[in-house]
Amino acid sequence: MIPELESAFLGHAPILEGFRQCVARGRLGSSYLFVGPPGVGKKTLALRLAQGLLCTNAASPVDPCQKCAECQRIRAESHPDVLVIERPRDRAFIPLELLVGDRDHRSTEGFCHWVSLSPQSNRYKIGIIDDADYLNTEGANSLLKTLEEPPSRSVLILIATSEQRQLPTIRSRCQIVRFGGLSEADLQRLLLQHGHCTSGEQAQLAAAAAEGSLEMAHYACDSDWSDMRDRTWRGLAGLPQSRWELVEHIQQYLDAAGSESSEKRRAVRNVLNWSVQFWRAALRNSQQNLATDSPSVLTEIVLSSTLRAETPDALSNCLERSIDGLAQIDNNVIVAGFIDAWVDDLALGR
Ligand SMILES: [Zn+2]
Prior knowledge:
The protein has helices spanning 5-8, 13-24, 42-54, 69-75, 96-100, 110-116, 137-148, 168-171, 184-193, 200-209, 214-220, 223-237, 243-256, 261-287, 297-304, 312-330, 338-348, and strands spanning 31-35, 82-85, 125-130, 154-160, 175-178. The chain is an alpha/beta fold and 350 residues long. Residues 55-58, 64-65, 67-68, 70-71 line the site of zinc ion. Zinc ion is lined by residues 55-58, 64-65, 67-68, 70-71.
């Protein structure tokens, strides 16, 4: 769980308030689909709700004491009435046995069976699937009955990045709760407040790169991370001559990100976000002098490049190509080969 629990809820007060009112009116639903960008606190909020429902000392269903045995067991993910399942790192999808038991124990083990049992606390059972983007059709279908006829006092929470990725049969059985990202101003404040960044400029750049996610903002404060980013910006500024060097540098970055495809995707998203920042700054510089902005590494790189000679159309093309790239990555385009094609487009297509 993100340590800055309270901070993680900055942007989500209306969601908590919604749950508070639902419980107060006895209208808590039984199946929810939480959707929003990665790292904005969806799972943290799901666990907080679980704590609120099971806490022996809660001021309200969304204000757990955080101190009682129930709260602490939920925080440690060891509470008998709270189950979180997620995709094992070595599997492409959430395996069916996690949902309904393996062949020998079909329907007598797994998430759905667990949900069907009465809560040990005699209060609620909260089952969380993190994340439902990794349910395949078979897995999603195995959940339908449980979602349709949930046992009383059970709350199921499916966590996902996008509604569109879920099967219509899942969507139609869940109440959808949409999470927005945190604002850049909130992220900046949190980064400085918690000592993740030492300067306002570092916090500003990290917040701008984080797409509303505190988790991503934390990565962005790391000095290796900012070295990588600055090298990428320099590579972009040196195009088309720097083409090979840039591709090689990005490839090394992706290799270092790990063998998991989700980690590689996150690394590619970082590169594309840096690129979006870069081309925006270059475009702004072509229209007005950037030097009037507060000086930053990015300003310095843009000003020392020859990009000012480029037409705004050419710079816009590069910006659009990078924004399109983000959409392609979200739509699960194959990462291998993507970087080459994308850098070629930037180098030649303007
Ligand atoms: Zn408590």
